[in-house]
Input
Amino acid sequence: MHHFHVRALATAAVAAFALAACGSSSKPSASSSTTVAPSTTAAPDTTSASAPSTSVAPADATVTLATTKLGKVVVDAKGMTLYRFDNDTVAGKSTCGAGPCASTWPAAIVTGTPTAGPGIEASKLGTFTRADDGKTQLQIGGHPVYTFAGDSKAGDTNGQGIIGKWYAVSPDGDKVGDKT
Output
């Protein structure tokens, strides 16, 4: 029982931080190129670069579906739930670029060409070059995607619905479980 209370408090603290970090003053990023990749094979990357402390290291661009308490959601190669942000209104542009937003909602940085797992339409996957750091971010259905720092293990969906702007992603890029 004590473990549940600690987890609930930790999730609430991360949610409050996310509210402060991403609530109302997101600056749009500069324009960037968008690439939609209908391929279903991944190209290996042989380069190595260190990632800044506020982002995750580039990952294999394989995305699959996982069954969670929200139903089927898109997850990255490590099984972590991918989320979209309502403030991202233009394909190929992330409004969660740096600082607290980026550390709470790390961009899904990938290497290679996105690979669609079963149940995901390959034509919905794409990437774009981020204006702030030049890294390649995954997008689904034209929506940039992110992971959530409050998800500690594969299948967690603790970022769902935070500030009414962050939602797990369906295979076509739509929000999972949005009632609006």
Summary: The mean pLDDT is 75. Residues 2-168 form one domain. The longest helix spans residues 2-22.
